[in-house]
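In the laboratory, one determines a bound structure by crystallizing the protein with its ligand and collecting diffraction data. In a computational setting the workflow is compressed into a single prediction: the sequence and the ligand go in, and a structural description comes out. We illustrate the idea with S-adenosylmethionine.
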Amino acid sequence: MKQNQEQSQVSSQHDVNSPNKWEADYERGTDGWDLNGPTAVFKRLAASGRFKPGSMIVLGAGRGHDARLFARQGFQVTAVDFSPYAAREMQRLAEPDAPVQIVQSDLFRLPPEFDINFDYVLEYTCFCAIDPQRREEYADLVARLLRSPNPVLGKPGGIYINLAFPLDTHKGGPPYAVSLPEIFTLFGKRGFSLLQREIPADSVAQRQGLEELLIFQASQIFS
Ligand SMILES: C[S@@+](CC[C@H](N)C(=O)[O-])C[C@H]1O[C@@H](n2cnc3c(N)ncnc32)[C@H](O)[C@@H]1O
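The predicted complex, in structure-token form:
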């Protein structure tokens, strides 16, 4: 029995669907994805004033650098991560003037009251972190979380902001390779329209040429 428990602990440390895998990376310091602050691409976007403050959910938020960035701009931010370490780090780094609701949860198990509740879904290196077999499920989730358009009131649908990385074709992961045609298909068939795509000049050096900023708008009514 004990041996079985140990075996399952070892295997869950390699299972991207389990918080144990991510917890182990944070504890060992093998969390090389962490930029120690918000990405310059989102800093520019947040400062542009193009998107007016509203409710935002950040999926796979890690230490919450990007969540706090948007909270500082007046967005009402909810940050989700299932790693207890990441949740503790978000609490440690919390800023009283930029409050973030920290939710330690598997993003695939968010409560129904989160549905149709957000003006924005934001993510960076989350799509590439989940099991690639769950990408359809992930796109369903984003579609469900975002506010639907309301043609009667003339209100547009919510916005999905994804700094898509890594745009290559390597085998294995995480990070698992990401392809733009796959993302366009996943979100296109759920009624999202592409508002913007941009190869950012201000990506961090090691990610230059490997990422693209994608901004979609939900244009289908979710029911
Ligand atoms: C590659 S890290 C990126 C963290 C952060 N976005 C950043 O850029 O620093 C992926 C994060 O997603 C979290 N994560 C992975 N799968 C998850 C899931 N199913 N539910 C909630 N969080 C998840 C991990 O715990 C980890 O913190």
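The mean pLDDT is 94. Keep in mind that any predicted model is a hypothesis to be tested, not a measurement.
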